[in-house]
């Protein structure tokens, strides 16, 4: 009898965590490494939010809370959905988890049966397919390549839907590409989904507030109200509020689904951290004045990185609409040999040689389901980004 679960053999560890860990190990060994793998803002949580957490501790808010979120936080989330997205959710239609990942996982655990399919556009966040597999479902990967701006077309979505399709998992702005769908682009997809009443929609809106160049964010249930009763709209405080470590994600959806997700959470983690929930109330209800300056900061870094990477021989880096990632193609580097003799057979070999020879840590594109690319997180200092781009350029110029 095998000790480990057969289910575990279906999934793999997170490649982004692996890259970040490797970079830290090399730094600890004395190597000069620039890590561009971590997907989190490099600045601190705003002071008003930190103070709300401190007050919660001082006031003794250190006990268990309701399994899927305090009433105060659910009210704040409902107000956020109404204010920013035009979506009307009652507190009974809102769930809170320990990060967006748990919210998505709960949804899949609560709904997927063996053989149920989940359509996932590629490139995708590395955890999506594995969460589907852990829940017993089957990920159906549909490529959305550089030729369509990394955006899924209506025809591709239509072609992927089968009688076994249960969910369409959607992310805009995207991790890893930064691509964001306009309301018009979304409408083309929602028109397809309206023709398939048994397909549910899970919209990952985690990067909602990180958009540039006057882009206007939209979410599927907002664009097509007819989908609201079969849409789970997921978000969180990690990215816009620099609260990755606080671990608060949330979602709004039909009450039946929310209750089922709560049942899963009640037998796994129970409630999210009480202190983090109190801080999240302040994040959503308090001042939002820091969001625009942060957008401007990330836009400047985006422009710096796009220009720097497009100056590298063999690299083509599109300009993303949001998030804090770029997803350049390295098609022009494949088949070459590095200065130290590494054969660049694919994007993983490119990323490995780049780390070994130039001390720049990036995540290879195959981890996100679309090659030959790599992901850069530009959520770090301008100085580090400039030096990283210089090293990448040097690496590319020495390929033969």
UniProtKB/TrEMBL annotation:
Catalytic reactions of this protein: L-aspartate + 2-oxoglutarate = oxaloacetate + L-glutamate
Pfam families to which the protein is assigned, alphabetical: Aminotran_1_2 (PF00155)
EC number: 2.6.1.-
Aminotransferase class I/classII large domain boundaries: 32-392
GO molecular function: L-aspartate:2-oxoglutarate aminotransferase activity; pyridoxal phosphate binding
Keyword Transmembrane helix: no
Record's keyword terms, sorted: Aminotransferase, Pyridoxal phosphate, Transferase
SUPFAM superfamilies: PLP-dependent transferases
A Gene Ontology biological process term: amino acid metabolic process
InterPro entries: Aminotransferase_I/II_large (IPR004839), AspAT/PAT-like (IPR050596), NHTrfase_class1_PyrdxlP-BS (IPR004838), PyrdxlP-dep_Trfase (IPR015424), PyrdxlP-dep_Trfase_major (IPR015421), PyrdxlP-dep_Trfase_small (IPR015422)
Keyword Disulfide bond in annotation: no
Segment forming the signal sequence: none
Family, per entry: Belongs to the class-I pyridoxal-phosphate-dependent aminotransferase family.
Protein name: Aminotransferase
């Amino acid at each position: 009898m095998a000790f480990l679960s057969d289910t575990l053999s279906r999934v793999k560890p997170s490649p982004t965590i692996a890259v970040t860990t490797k970079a830290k190990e090399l730094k600890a060994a004395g190597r000069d490494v620039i890590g561009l793998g971590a997907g989190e803002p490099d600045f601190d949580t705003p002071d008003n939010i930190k103070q709300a957490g401190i007050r919660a501790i001082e006031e003794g808010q250190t006990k268990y809370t309701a399994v899927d979120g305090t009433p105060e936080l659910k009210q704040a989330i409902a107000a956020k959905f109404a204010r920013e997205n035009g979506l009307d959710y009652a507190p009974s239609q809102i769930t809170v988890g320990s990060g967006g990942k748990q919210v998505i996982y709960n949804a899949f655990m609560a709904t997927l049966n063996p053989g149920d399919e989940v359509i996932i556009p590629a490139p995708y966040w590395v955890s999506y397919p594995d969460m589907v597999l852990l829940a017993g479902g089957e990920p159906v990967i549909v490529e959305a390549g550089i030729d369509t701006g990394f955006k899924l077309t209506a025809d591709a979505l239509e072609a992927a839907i089968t009688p076994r399709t249960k969910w369409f998992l959607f992310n805009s702005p995207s991790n890893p590409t930064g691509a964001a769908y306009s309301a018009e682009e979304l409408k083309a997809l929602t028109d397809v989904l309206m023709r398939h009443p048994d397909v549910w929609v899970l919209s990952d809106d985690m990067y909602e507030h990180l958009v540039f160049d006057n882009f206007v964010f939209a979410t599927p249930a907002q664009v097509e109200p007819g989908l609201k009763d079969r849409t789970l709209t997921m978000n969180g405080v990690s990215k816009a509020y620099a609260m990755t470590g606080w671990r608060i994600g949330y979602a709004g959806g039909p009450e039946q689904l929310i209750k089922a997700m709560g049942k899963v959470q009640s037998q796994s983690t129970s409630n999210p951290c009480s202190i983090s929930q109190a801080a999240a109330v302040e994040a959503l209800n308090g001042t939002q004045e820091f969001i625009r300056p942060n957008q401007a900061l990330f836009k400047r870094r985006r422009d710096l990185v796009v220009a720097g990477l497009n100056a590298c021989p063999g690299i083509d880096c599109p300009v993303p609409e949001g998030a804090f990632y770029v997803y350049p193609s390295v098609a022009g580097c494949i088949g070459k040999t590095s200065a130290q003799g590494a054969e660049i057979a694919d994007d993983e070999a490119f990323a490995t040689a780049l780390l070994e020879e130039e001390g720049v840590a990036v995540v290879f594109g195959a981890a996100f389901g679309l090659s030959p690319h790599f992901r850069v997180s530009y959520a770090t200092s301008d100085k580090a980004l400039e030096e990283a781009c210089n090293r990448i350029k040097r690496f590319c110029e020495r390929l033969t």
